[in-house]
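Re: weekly structure request thread

Next one in the queue (128 aa):
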Amino acid sequence: MTPAAHPNISVLMQLDLQNLDACTNIFAGDFIWHYFNPRLPDVHGDYCGVDGLKQFFAIMNNQSSGSFRVNKIDGWTVGDELVVTQVCNQMNFEGQDMEFDAIVVWRIVNSEIAEAWDIPAINTIRKS
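Done, posted below.
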């Protein structure tokens, strides 16, 4: 994702998934992370606040023996409130290295991330 004139892209440029404690100021107090993945029913669901997002990533790291990685590909704005990011996730799951595409739709209000929907492409997983 390259910097752009839209202020919501600038907000997401401050997001450090490896160090969420360093960027808590860009999250709304009532932030919600929605994860849709019926193939991982133990992970599928809503996570509230930055602590909830940390919990989500901890679960994904546990599911993948610490190998879960998010590689940003691109991002674009939709109106004044939404940003869509395209990512390629990598992980080892049940002994198999794999990668899969996903989009995350971010809702940003008053320069704070208020909500996000993480939608993986679960039918086109690539094994490596």
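The longest helix spans residues 49-63. The chain is about 15% helix and 45% strand.
Next request, please.
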